[in-house]
Amino acid sequence: MTNTSGMAVRLDGLTKSFGAVRAVRGVDLDIAPGEVVALLGPNGAGKSTTIDMLLGLARPDHGSARIFGREPQAAVAEGLVGAMLQAGTILPDVTVGELVDLFGSLHKKPIPVEEALERAGIADLAKRPTNKLSGGQIQRVRFALAVVTDPELLVLDEPTVAMDVEARRSFWTTMHELTATGRTVLFATHYLAEADEYADRVVLMREGEIVADGTAAQIKSRVAGRSISMTLEHADLRRLAELPGVDEARHGRQGRVVLRCADSDLALRALLATYPDAVDIEVESVDLEEAFLALTSVGSTS
Ligand SMILES: Nc1ncnc2c1ncn2[C@@H]1O[C@H](COP(=O)(O)OP(=O)(O)OP(=O)(O)O)[C@@H](O)[C@H]1O
After folding, report:
1. How far is the CA of 23 from the centre of ligand 1 (A)?
2. Which of 88, 131, 143, 298 has the CB geometry, 3.0–4.6 Å to 120, for a possible disulfide?
3. Which residue's CA is the closest to the ligand 1 atom numbered 1?
4. Nearest in space to 51 (alpha carbons), one of 21, 78, 31, 77
5. Which sequence ranges form a coiled-coil region, renumbered to this chain (predicted)?
6. Is residue 201 within 8 Å of 175, Cβ to Cβ?
7. Which of 11, 22, 47, 157 for mutating ligand 1's site (highest number of atoms within 8 Å of CB)?
8. Which of 14, 21, 22 most suits a substitution to test ligand 1, by most atoms within 8 Å of the C-beta?
């Protein structure tokens, strides 16, 4: 049996430049077995370069990447890793079934082709020539190639990029079934909702560095905590802004008053003590999009 004890992924001081471009600047990241982690960041943040180094497709200038304690190439050769990358064409002049079979046969312990196609939701495409596929279907074939080796770790670079809403939903249903069996997943995405909904943990990158790492809820709360909105007659915004835990007070929609809070619990207690006539009170988290923009925009502090 394969020894897969220890961290599924361990990146230690990973650094890479392309000429003057410092693409990845000292990334440390541990991913435990069974975690589903989203790598989020704006264009050029260094996500693909990090993934390439993790898979042994690019050599770091400094630092190291390990998969279950092994060098990336060794882990890939052992079939411990399944990857779905954006780049790379799919072999033409074969059927989908033949392609997945060929790919599986290069590895030690492939699952049956039918099962890989089933897991990717393309059982009906087995006999389809690979040059007769839509963009979304090609993504699913890539996914079948990633799972046919029955890997412990799946690394997916923007897996749902060419899929419509329905295809995306069914893709994630399939992923859920896989992760329920304890597989580890690292996926890069631009869809914040996907990270929010499907990842146990979100790692935000900006300019080659990790700027936030936690559950989606923790990351949201990093950005100005929460907001409290209420109906309050004759509100004095200046005094409201001075309440403990409050950063800013403003008028919101439909005559409501909104407090942006660093500490919403503290602010709520102070609000109720000072303004008993505040009614219709709602406490809301900032959404991941606000947090993403705040934490990844150049010049923001983290
Ligand atoms: N082969 C290369 N040669 C030169 N510069 C590169 C190369 N690969 C990446 N870069 C640069 O390194 C930086 C990080 O790029 P990378 O592709 O890792 O970011 P990313 O977060 O994956 O972006 P995207 O979301 O657009 O895919 C960018 O400034 C990019 O232009």
Report:
1. 6
2. 143
3. 18
4. 31
5. none
6. no
7. 47
8. 21
Place of tokens 């006539």: 277
Looking at this predicted complex, what is its ipTM? 0.96
Q: Is 45 in the pocket of ligand 1 (CB under 6 A)?
A: yes
How far, in Å, are 77, 132, 135, 206 from residue 146 at the CA level? 13, 20, 17, 27
